[in-house]
Write a structure and sequence with these properties.
Oligomer: single chain
CATH class: Mainly Beta
CATH superfamily: Hypothetical protein
CATH topology: Archaeosine Trna-guanine Transglycosylase, Chain: A, domain 4
Distance between the termini: 40 Å
Strand content: 25-35%
Number of strands: 9
CATH architecture: Roll
Shape: globular
Number of domains: 1
Length: 226
């Protein structure tokens, strides 16, 4: 299996690490023009802070990638985007845009959806591998079967096992949408990630009326706009 160490905004990390009960996050990309075909389903993506904070501080497990207008990304994930409000999320992403977008432009962003995120306390941050150079601005993949990747994953497992969110042991079988390989313990696909996958399947339109929609799974407090 391969893992991906991605350069992470510290404000994004700190905000999400302070939120209780976060079961999935949107690791967004400010540009919507490129995809993300680095990881297989269920593979780990690890968060590494920008230099000079050259540490891996958490991670999550890849569920899906989608290109969405920023308004729909907020509707789907809310604070799981790593910002307290839509205005704050937009201001953060606008800062990466050149030229600056119009305030009314509902531009697309890339959305890397991660399940079961974990955030390490400062005393358990992990030094980035020696070959993760300062000029790497997006991220770097590691084969967990090779020495560097295996050592990195061992450190991550140890850091998680001593924290409040321990690594699950043994296979997990749960009713509902799944991803990952059964023999390794499949994970339940969270509602918001599933919601986006359904939305993508219908090109963000209601399957019945053809109107633009963001479907809401059964049990949500509000209703689909369809």
């Amino acid at each position: 299996m391969k893992a991906y160490v991605a350069v992470t905004d510290k404000d994004w990390f700190q905000f999400l690490s302070q939120q209780p009960g976060i079961d999935e996050v949107n690791f967004w990309k400010p540009g919507g023009g490129t995809g993300f075909n680095v990881l297989s389903l269920g593979a780990p993506l690890l968060f590494k802070l920008h230099w000079p904070d050259n540490y891996i501080v958490g991670g999550g497990f890849f569920a899906s990638f989608s290109k969405l207008p920023i308004s729909i990304a907020w509707d789907a994930f809310g604070i799981k985007n790593g910002a307290p409000t839509y205005a704050a999320l937009r201001a953060r992403i606008d800062a990466f845009k050149n030229p600056a977008p119009s305030p009314r432009e509902d531009y697309e962003i890339g959305n890397i959806i991660l399940q079961d995120p974990f955030f390490l306390p400062r005393e358990r941050w992990i030094a980035a591998p020696a070959d993760f150079l300062p000029n790497i601005v997006q991220g770097k993949g590691y084969d967990l079967g090779q020495p560097v990747g295996r050592e990195l994953w061992t450190q991550v497992m140890m850091a998680r096992a001593t924290g409040p969110r321990k690594v699950a042991e043994g296979p997990v079988e749960i009713d509902g949408p799944m991803f990952g390989e059964a023999e390794r313990g499949r994970r339940r696909l969270r509602q918001d990630a599933f919601r986006v996958m359904v939305t993508d399947a219908y090109h963000r339109r209601c399957a019945i009326s053809g109107e633009k929609a963001l479907p809401v799974p059964q049990g949500r407090a509000h209703h689909a706009r369809c």
